Amino acid sequence: DGGITQSPKYLFRKEGQNVTLSCEQNLNHDAMYWYRQDPGQGLRLIYYSQIVNDFQKGDIAEGYSVSREKKESFPLTVTSAQKNPTAFYLCASGTAEAFFGQGTRLTVV
Amino acid sequence: GNSVTQMEGPVTLSEEAFLTINCTYTATGYPSLFWYVQYPGEGLQLLLKATKADDKGSNKGFEATYRKETTSFHLEKGSVQVSDSAVYFCALEGGNNRKLIWGLGTSLAVNP
Predict the structure, then answer these.
(1) Which residues of B touch A97 (CB under 8 A)?
(2) Nearest CA of chain B to the CA of A50: how many Å?
(3) Chain A closest CA to B22's CA: distance in Å?
(4) Bridge-partner residues for B99, per DSSP?
(5) pLDDT (tens digit, 9 = 90+) per residue, A13-64?
(6) Rounded to an integer, what distance in angstroms lies between the CA atom of residue B88 and that of residue B105?
(7) Are B109 and B24 in contact (CB under 8 A)?
(8) To probe the interface with B, which of A7, A43, A51, A104 has the most B CB atoms within 10 Å?
(9) A51-95 pLDDT tens trace
């Protein structure tokens, strides 16, 4: 089955540590996106990539980094520079119509 | 620029009640319009879409009509169920890079 997979589902990070969230898709989509969702709020775009080896900052890129070395993969690193990283992170792929992963809930302990 | 305005929640209904969630948009041209649903603890799923004026998207008893004259795409369902409890997001295809522009989401709780 085609789809988009995020891992892990739950992630705990100590303050000052970097952590990488995985996102893999087998839908052959060029475009991929990372969103952050806080309780009771909408989706905020962190980074997006429209093609391999290229990506652009979204609305809240500070404290995050990404890479797009393969079409299937778009990992997100939450760095220690992100002051409030506890949130639900969603990865999506597709042009116009988006397909979402199940999300990763990151908690700083 | 393109934008989406969605009615604020939370919306609380009894089972079998009629549902309307309002969504209006600002856009140049004629972007595709979408409704997504997010069940607790999960990612978003496409619920329905419309790609041109007067199109009606429908799925699982939900409907929305692309109204160019009122720049609206309101979500409706004639009889909600407890299982419809979720957050609903309106979105439009935005700009040259075609990434989606999102509303803030409307939380729906349906009581038995």
Answers:
(1) 32, 34, 46, 49
(2) 8
(3) 16
(4) B94
(5) 998 899 999 999 999 999 999 999 998 778 999 999 999 999 999 999 999 9
(6) 5
(7) no
(8) A43
(9) 999 999 999 999 999 999 999 999 999 998 888 999 999 999 997
